[in-house]
Structure formats: structure tokens, C-alpha cells
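Risk register update: the risk that structure generation would not scale has been downgraded. Supporting records follow, first protein first.
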Amino acid sequence: MLRLVARAPAKVNLVLRVGALRPDGYHDIHSLMVPLDLADRVLVRVRRGRAGGVTCRCPGRPDLDGQSNLAARAAEAFRRRFGVADGIDVVIEKRIPVTAGLGGGSSDAAAVLRCLARACRVRDRGALAEVAASVGSDVPFFLGPGPAWASGRGERLRPARVRPLDLVILHPRDPALAIRAGDAYRWLDETRSGKAAPTFRGPKRSFRPSDRVNDLEGPCLERHPRLVTIRGWLEGWGAAGGMMSGSGPAVFGVFAGRSAARAAQRALRQRAGGEAVDVIVTRTLRRLLGVSSWKSPRSASSRSTKRS
């Protein structure tokens, strides 16, 4: 059995401009996506020479187990595209909030594809990107090396330069504040009824904090005014502007450094009181980490004992 492990980072959209609705049901976008050091841990086991299907488990989150998980769908798509008959087991240790606009499901799916590409020695990046795009619009981004401008429906990527940023993310866990991406885009279309959607210039290679914008934010906050209050907490504790990530409901603010972010985290946890709001300190990454062989804690302990 071949065992591989990969970190699946979250992301924020520092820029998200949304164009017109396309005939295929998607929207053209112009977005700057940046990976974070907040990450899930994805373990992939390939049962060499043993035909079988795909299993997917998320310990502690049985609601995410099974074939509907985007990671399981990615494994199935990989098997079909590259003719893999071996059984595949996926285990995801979740750290990224679910349905938050932080890309956790897409990142898990990409981590599975990266592991399987290494296990099966697939070096055709174009074919792998096609598989990723068939699974989800954000999945190709998580196959790339780091920050990127995304266009099309998210599958066309161009590297971007973003200096490291210290962020505080607020994620309200109240199910009443959950937002489906499809709803967020539909609400935006409704606000534009009779108006032309914006057009975009080519992507920039560098990013300035003043460039931050999210076209989905207005319609979502209008329907969930509680998020306006939560976003205001960030601004009240020194964030350089609060903004919703993706289709939300998570909001984030940029702070002057890690110590300022930590101080804001402590204050915001007290401010939230008994309210179900995750307060997360994180930092943007310049590059994604690779895939590595998985070693059980037992075997690592044995080697450490022998060395001693």
C-alpha cells in the first residue's frame, strides 16, 4: 500500500470581480486568490494491485464522509481520466471551516489529485488541470505554485506577487448565516437586473491593499446584516478594512503584523463572547507545499527510540 500526505491550504480572495452570466451557467471572474497557512491534512492510500473503489472519511465530521465529498469526486475523476483501477482511500483531517468561502473542499480535492499524480507518475499538467476543472472551478488554483490571478470561471491562472499578509478570519458557525455560492451569484445578478456587468482589464502581476474588492459582498451582506456587524469587529480592532472572502460568510481583515493579529484575536474572542464565531489568525503563503510520504507516528517513535 502506497501512502502519501499533503497539506490542503485555505485561500482568501483579495480581489473578486464578477462578470456577466455565461451561457454555460457560470460567470466570468477576475480574482486574486492567495493560499494561507491554515490547512487541512489529506492522507491518500493507494491499494497497489488491488482493484476497488474510492473511500473518503473525515474523522470527527461524519457529515463529510462518502462519495459526495469533493475529494472523493476528484479521486474518481482521476481514475477515469488516467485508467487507474487500484482502490483509493482518502482521509481528511479538517481544520478549515466548512462552507465558509475559504476553499477548503476545493483544496482537499486538489491535494488528492497531487497525491495521485505522484503515486501514478502522472506528469501531464495539462491533463491534470482538466481533471481539476471538471471537479470544481477553484480546484485548478490549488494545483498551482501559489498566489494567482484567476479568470474565465477560475481555471485560467497567472502567477501573482503578493507580499506576506497577516490576517484574522471571523467565521460565524450559525447555520442561518451559511451562504451557498450559487445563491451569492444569483443575488448579485438580481441587483444588476437591467445593468451591464463590468468588464475587466488583464490581470496585474502585483497587488496593493487598496485593490481589495469583492463583488459578491454587497448582496450577501444585504441579506445577512449580522455579517456587517461581525465585519465591523475587525475594523474596530485595527484591521486595514474587513472584507468577505469568496461567497462567505467568513470575513477577514489585514493586520500590520503577527503580533497585532494575535492581539486582535484575543480581543475578538472576548467580544464574540458566547456567540459561535471562530477567530483564526493566519498568514498568506508565497508557495504551496508538496506531497510527502506518510509515516505513522508509531514508526516515527520506533526510529526515535532506536536512535536514542
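Supporting record for the second protein:
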Amino acid sequence: MTRGQDIPPNVGPVPYGSCVEETAAVLDVLPGTPDAPDAPGAQERRGPALSPSRAADFMTCPLLYRFRVIDKLPEPPTTATARGTLVHAALERLFDLPAAERTPEAARALLVPEWDRLAAEEPDLAALFPDEAERASWLQSAVAITDAYFTLEDPRRLEPAERESYVETTLESGLRLRGYIDRLDVAPGGEIRIVDYKTGRAPREAYEASALFQMKFYALVIWRLRGQVPTLLQLMYLAEGEVLRYAPDESDLLATERKITALWQAIERARAAGDWRPRPSRLCDWCNHQALCPEFGGTPPPLPTADEA
């Protein structure tokens, strides 16, 4: 596990190419929201499914998992989540440009049209900024994060194989693992790098393992889909100019699969017992559902019936 601003010479920034055929659909979703029901083939597939976000929810607080997955309570966007969505969209579109044109100026120029598109598609996003001056100030914060991206790598030397890709695989247990990968880079020799952009703060070293769980989850999916362990997992904390890297091996991913299986068994036990107890932590300060949480004097809504769930 390494941190730093430089790309290791054995992995990047060599020109990763598109030598893996694109099989995943490109979908735009808000980070942190429940998995999109319109994912490719979602209506045809049945059975239990888990994404990294929902797995993290249950590990953080079983009641939060219940609110998001079972009760499907709405969560309005915030300026921080909206900024993350915008920066992700701009970086995705940046790679639509010819390599020589992928400059900081080009990335900045993408922000306003991408915001206009997102706001038109999601009225809740547009409602975040009734004041034009506030919106302009917020857009400048997105410009700063986008500019910082260019201190971490040179997109003119990259040709991602896939961007904003939906991936899914089914374990032997029947549990489906699914999620959205920001970027897959494939080197000429076939080595795979999974890249995830983060616009929030980089974790302290004590929490790096939790931050990497999402990436190991994706690496497990790619391994099961393609029979190849990704060479590198790369978390790019754009605002702070830090990169967290990890080189997994098969034992790592087998351990991740065991952890996910045990986690799903715990979720199933909670579902069978109707026992979704809260797990208080410092993250409660950012929770949208304090009014319904017993830890804050609230009462959760009645559990949906089988027909409603």
C-alpha cells in the first residue's frame, strides 16, 4: 500500500490502451445513492445483490442500510455530493477528447455544460443554488479540484479501456456483486489498473483498509469476470493531491470474497429477525436520517411488507 503524487514507473503513466473490449454500459449515477434499478439487464436478473456502497452502509450502521435499501428513504443531494458528481462527469468527458487536447483548460471548459446537463436531469441538483453568486463560488471549488487532478497524472498519456462502467458477477453462493467503476486502464501487456476518483478528504492511515475495501470489491468482480487479478488499485484523492495505491493478489481477493459472504449472511440474519440496530459513530453527524434514529430520539418507520419491499 503506497501513497504519493508520482505514478509508479512499473504501472503508469504508460499509455494504457483499449485492448479490453468494452462490454459494460456507461451510466451516470450520483455517488452514494442506491444502485440504479435500470442497470443493464436488471429486469432479467433476480436474486440477492450487493454493491460496495451498500456493503459499507451495513458495516457502518445496519439501520442506515435498512433506511437506504429496504425503506428506500430519499436523500437529497448536498453541495459536496453534487461537486463530486460534476467532477466525475467532467473527467469522464475529458477522455472523449483527442489525447493532445486533454488539458486543464479543456477540463475547466467542460464543467459548466456538464453541470447544466446534470441539473436539467436532476431538479434537486438545480435547487441547491437559488443564488447565482453562490453557484459561481461553488463552481470555482469544482474548478480547483479539476485542476488538482492534473498534478497527479497526465491524461494525454492515457487511453482508458472503460469509464463509468457498470460491472457485475455472481458468486457460487448466488450473491451478485455489482457496482460502477470510475476507470479501467489496461496496459499493452494486459495489466489492469482500477482507478477511482475521490473529491473528499483522504483517509488517515488507520482507515486506509476501509477505503480500499471498495477497490478490492471491484477487483474481485473483475477477477471473476475476466480471470485476471488487477495489477493495481488506485484511489485518487483529487482535492488533497494524494494517491493511495495497492497491488492485490489472489489471497487478498479470496479474503475479500469471504468477508463479503460473511457480511451478506449478517445482512440476511438481520433481515430475517427484523433487527436493524443503529451503530453510533462520528459519521452520525452526516446522516440524513437522525430524526428517525432511536439514538437521536426518533422512531424508524414500520418495516415494509414483503409486497412493498
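Strands lie at 2-4, 49-50, 162-170, 176-186, 192-198, 232-237, 242-246. On this basis the risk owner (M.S.) recommends closing the item.
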